[in-house]
Description:
By secondary structure, this protein is of the alpha+beta class. It has helices at about 35-65, 65-85, 100-115, 180-215, 215-220, 225-250, 255-260, 280-290, 330-340, 360-365, 375-380; strands spanning about 1-10, 20-25, 30, 95, 125-130, 135-140, 145, 155, 160, 165-170, 175, 300-310. It is built from eleven helices and twelve strands. The longest helix has about 35 residues, at about 180-215.
Amino acid sequence: MSVMVARKKVVRKWEKLPGRNTFCCDGRIMMARQKGIFYLTLFLILGTCALFFAFECRYLAVQLSPAIPVFAAVLFLFAMATLLRTSFSDPGVIPRALPDEAAFIEMEIEATNGTVPQGQRPPPRIKNFQINNQIVKLKYCYTCKIFRPPRASHCSICDNCVERFDHHCPWVGNCVGKRNYRYFYLFILSLSLLTIYIFTFNIVYVALKSLKIGFLNTLKETPGTVLEVLICFFTLWSVVGLTGFHTFLVALNQTTNEDIKGSWTGKNRVQNPYSHGNIVKNCCEVLCGPLPPSVLDRRGILQQEESTAQEGPCPRGPGTQEPLAMQGPRQAEESSTKQQDGSIPLSSAVPAPPLSDAEMPEEKLRTPGEVPVPSLDAGRAEH
């Protein structure tokens, strides 16, 4: 007999979060869904540094100083740590409104704007907010059903609103926002130093080897060094230029999104309300300020009940009774009598003997649905 058993299945909140993110290690790692370029970044950094440590470092440590590979290892570890911290963290995703909250916001908007005639475009959903004597507009997100906080924006790739949204960087495989911008800046800064460092000592290595065996022979004997020089040369301009651009933004306390849109330097000529007017204060706030905690609660628990059917005998205690459908006609009548007046009938004390087939009426002997067939004796009596 099958028995329905309710089991509680533990479900983490990250499994039900909307958006286009990928979660690993039970929600501890959060990345964008498109990670192909991130793997290319890892391959270039690991491959270039592996060639440098395998070939040039040993020669330079003997010829010049043993501190050269040590300093290169420090830069490499720091760059990898900041890269992984940027890629595997929550950039500052803002949770979407719950259905009740979204309905309440919609009611507020309708009450404020009134009824819009058919065929006319509804007014933009904007709230004005004052920061440092400057009016900042809070825009409504139709996907998340919220009024975005100041400096927040909706990422079309991850499909999330991110607080202090800077940009979506495919090279790190994640959005860059309030919670991981400082690690992104430290990553590109350390990567610029590492690229310059490897490129410089590759040139030194080629120069030292050329003094002994000649320039052309050095290029023939060290193809790995030539490959490193080419990678560093083409990477140097983009990485160093990106680092300089973000250094400029940090000094102004501005984001890439605001710079592209011209929020503070456009036609309106509105002064940046987030800037302290001091480069040191702006850098301290962006790079050394308190880091807000994640508001997603990715590893929170959602309990869901599951009903599963199990085959087995149904346990019946001493006081349980069989259903009336499973009981005989006498037992069913006695049970109904007991349930009505609460007393035990006398017939239940001494069970009645079962009737034999001879004593059983003919109607009782027929199976349900059987058509009664007249006997031969009855037909002869009629004749």
